[in-house]
Automatic annotation (TrEMBL):
This is Tripartite tricarboxylate transporter family receptor. Belongs to the UPF0065 (bug) family. It comes from the Bacteria. The keyword Metal-binding does not apply. It comes from Pigmentiphaga humi. Pfam families: TctC. Keywords: Receptor.
Length: 336
């Protein structure tokens, strides 16, 4: 039984070949052990961090998807809201978690493509600090004016503010509503003062009360209902496509104002260093969840995606490149 090894040992260069063979064997064993370890994943509940407050439309959607993913994973996905500091608190919690698949997070175009650019010292790197899992869903932004306003088109809004300077509401400094408001102001040349609020609801309440002239906000069922009730008026969709929630409302491009658009997308990431086998398990579970009727009941009016990790990584990189100069041009900065 020792004949072949002895013959090999006697040949020139046999030492390097033995080391290579041993290395290959150890590599195979390591891969096998990794497969055994990942085969058991997940063995306990998974924490899903949301950098948004409870009760928001994105919180409701994420909880519905998490509940469906739990069924596939065989473990509960526990949703934990970590709102505050423009999403930085939640994002840093995901970045600092152990890359073992038991702490992941929901991210959006704001927390990845916008928020880091608001700080002179970036709180995290949107590309290097996270491992993409899947792009989940998105909803378009909508340009709202008070239901009592005589303004019915974007052109009429521009004319009204040029005749009499006014203000616009946003969900806070650096929010989607703020960036879209600045794009709109810069493109049209209107004299509109930014009024930041702490979230969507108080901003829209002042739009409905006609204390401000307009606001860009995400499409959702509750806002569609307010439009039906006459409390708000939707005059344009600030996205590539129209929204089924607001039938007949044109896009900003169709209204003659191209370039003022933002799809508010949401997706899932883990901390950098999360292994590919675990990413594969999570991707399969959440992609499956996104396709269920139960999850889609909570995603009405949203565009549902189910992408590969690579496709999501490409979307993140593209939007970071797109929004960084817009943030700089707006001059918006916040304190760390």
């Amino acid at each position: 039984m020792s004949y072949l090894p002895n013959r090999l040992n006697d040949r020139p260069g046999s030492s390097s070949r033995r080391r290579a063979a041993a290395g290959a064997l150890l590599g195979a064993v390591a891969l096998a052990l990794a497969g055994v370890a990942h085969a058991a994943y997940p063995e306990r509940p998974i924490t899903l961090i949301l950098p948004v407050p409870p009760g928001s439309s994105s919180d409701i959607a994420a909880r519905a998807v998490a509940a469906e993913a739990s069924k596939t994973l065989g473990q509960t996905v526990v949703v934990e809201n970590r709102a505050g500091a423009h999403g930085v608190i939640g994002m840093q919690a995901v970045r600092g978690a152990r890359p073992d698949g038991y702490t992941i997070g929901v991210v959006n175009v704001g927390t990845l493509a916008v928020t880091p650019e608001l700080f002179t010292r970036k709180p995290y790197d949107p590309v290097r600090d996270f491992k993409p899992i899947t792009l989940g869903w998105s909803f378009p932004s909508v340009l709202f004016v008070p239901g009592s306003s005589p303004v019915k088109t974007v052109a009429e809004l521009v004319a009204a503010i040029k005749a009499k300077p006014d203000s616009y509401a946003s969900q806070g400094p650096g929010s989607g509503g703020h960036l879209l408001g600045e794009q709109f102001r810069l493109q049209t040349g209107v004299d509109a003062t930014h009024v930041p609020y702490k979230g969507s609801l108080p901003a829209l309440q002042d739009v409905m009360a006609a204390r401000v002239a307009f606001s860009f906000d995400g499409a959702s069922l509750d806002k569609a209902q307010w439009v039906k009730e006459g409390r708000l008026r939707a005059i344009a969709i600030a996205a590539r496509n129209r929204s089924e929630l607001f039938p007949g409302v044109p896009t900003m491009r169709e209204a003659g104002f191209p370039g003022v658009e933002m799809d508010i997308w949401f997706g899932l990431v883990g901390p950098a260093g999360l292994s590919d086998p675990i990413v594969h398990v999570l991707n399969a579970a959440f992609v499956s969840a996104l396709k269920t009727a139960q999850a889609n009941n909570q995603l009405q009016g949203f565009e549902v995606y189910a992408t590969s990790p690579r496709e999501f990584a490409e979307r993140i990189a593209a939007d970071v490149a797109h929004f960084a100069p817009i943030v700089k041009q707006s001059g918006v900065q916040v304190e760390h």
